[in-house]
Amino acid sequence: MNRTPLKRSHLLRMALSSLEQRDPGQGESFLVKAIKIALVVSLYWLVSVSMVFLNKYLLGSPDLKLDAPLFVTFYQCSTTVLICLLLNLLLTLCPWVLDVPPLRFDLKVSREILPLSVVFIGMISFNNLCLKYVGVAFYNVGRSLTTVFNVLLSYFVLKQTTSWKAILCCGVILGGFLLGIDQEGVEGSLSWTGVIFGVLASLCVSLNAIYTKKVLPAVDGSIWRLTFYNNVNACVLFIPLIAIFGELKVLYYFDKLNSVHFWGMMTLGGVLGFAIGYVTGFQIKFTSPLTHNISGTAKACAQTVLAVSYYNEVKTALWWTSNMMVLGGSSAYTWVKGIEMKKAQEESQTRDHEKTEAGV
């Protein structure tokens, strides 16, 4: 599950980013810091790209022939819960290893988290369904409207305005998205089902951020505990959905339920889904949020090129242009918002300084 995106990786990176409170670059030579940064960025790329290709195999491989995307997503959530419990056990045995609060299940808290869990289920399900119906090469374009929805929801829900520069960046992203759809149609590989799921996934990613802030007080602001409750709720809610959409019948007739390879791939997908948050947190810690976004954009570009090469696809110049518009618009939006946030912070500090001097 990429970029992803999303999203679950955002929750997990915040949950585990407290593993090291010390400045990772303190007292180290430039060479050591450069090597660490290179290793962390490389690990992020490896985990993220591997997760997307593995999920594509699980969701749409002609060799596997498993038409049960909800079950695949349910299993990955179950794996996250299991890893959380194992880490909690490690915390009990060796409390000095992890700097996170212990996990405990409270039904009242679980109910308070439920609205977020519904959005969370939509986010990860639509994300996987998009990947099921579109190629890995088009995947980044298909679910590229998260930034656009962020701006729209900020205005209509939070009543926050956006600068014209940021809106212009969103326009570039939207243009790349529409051009990508057009070029997929020209090549005869367009799946409107996949596109719709991609748009819904983008919307749910934006809603997930809003609901996360809303329910955080229920878990005392602990993203670690929120991740646990969210995935436990998701596992429970997925069970009736799997039955309603007929996936139990699909699983009953699936000929690889006894395959060690199949369950190994499923478990690896769950582990990678959990690990993406871990490596994302370390990439941000050893670089910066802006560098992380730039790395994510470069990774998406490399992933697209790798997918085109791996699946022996031939793409037109306009198709590549659509990808560059999406990636370029997203990078420009991050840069613009970074400048605006820095300017707002400086203005706030200036006002505080002036108030202090006036008080004196």
Automatic annotation (TrEMBL):
Segments crossing the lipid bilayer: 30-53, 73-93, 113-135, 165-183, 189-211, 232-254, 260-281
Pfam families: TPT
UniProt KW keywords: Membrane, Transmembrane, Transmembrane helix
Membrane-related topology note: Multi-pass membrane protein
Domain Sugar phosphate transporter: 36-308
Protein's cellular compartments: Membrane
Keyword Transmembrane annotated: yes
Name of the protein described by the UniProt record: Solute carrier family 35 member C1
